[in-house]
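Here is a protein:
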Amino acid sequence: MDHALPDTLPVPWPDGGAHPPAATVAALERAATVLRGGGLVAVPTETVYGLAALALDEAAVARIFTAKGRPASNPLIVHVADTAMARSLAAAWPDAAERLAAALWPGPVTVVVPRAAAVPDLVTAGGATVALRCPAHPVIRRLIAMVGAPLAAPSANRSLRLSPTTAGHVFESLGARVDLILDGGPCSAGIESTVVDCTAAEPVVLRPGPVAAATLATLLGHPVAAAGDRAGVARSPGQLRRHYAPRTPLEVAADAPRVVRRAIRAGKRVGWLCLTPDAPATRAVAGSTEAVVVPMPAVPQEYGARLYALLHALDRRSLDLIVADAPPAEAAWDAIRDRLTRASSPDETGDADGTAP
């Protein structure tokens, strides 16, 4: 499906107001035309850049899987304009989904509900549920409105690799596999949405994200547990043991200074995502020409906003190893811990590109 390299069109939208610049409107109109023709458009959201196609067009959805090298067993999230569009894709609308959508949409939370018959099997990995989200970013919201239809939009990168938080990341990862890239600047949240399975009597978090479990519990009136590993058909993306991975090997370490020093002694060039930049052990390593020490925010939301962009940058440095300080054990760090754990898991596919099922 390779073709000429895609155009990258800036879509500035100052303050997200009602009236974007004329150039942004023109870019969105072109993107809508590409989508209506069954094409693929990389589009910014508040979480990461998505690779969008018409969600109810199975041939267009199939192009997403081909472009990403994504296994058909990994379902997609469908992006909607509002709750009414979401309901049209659901065979039932649980009370938990209604509460979360009313309080958190538009925003970085995805609800999993029973699917309607109109949703193609390929979108749901053949399962009985569909994952739905109403994004907050004005560009994708306007694009959905222009097309007048829901958009399937997983992260705009090759399967299992680092999610893109800039248009440049998309271009580097997908190149000619995408028809058009809309450049809305860096994504604000920087990690993927929180996913909540609303089909059970007590909803569970399938993937932690920007919306914390404590917020979900307040809205639903009871604690929300993490699902853990489940057998059977996946109900959400982000369930693979290895995911969100840089090409450079990544190790999460409780004693990062020791791990970094050991790697340097072994002749390796190391990048270190460091939560203790002012500690004496860190300062001792920072003077080495074989180490790139990156101070990381101590606030999980700020950490998440920077994580993928920094991993992309370190991946370009021809390093032998990236080390990340183990995140704090607090629940507020669940999403960061999840992404780092999956990114550092062994590649069990034997595929150097990380693109095999």
Summary: The chain has two domains: 7-226, 250-343. The longest helix spans residues 300-315. The two ends are 19 Å apart (CA to CA). The first strand starts at residue 7 and ends at 10.
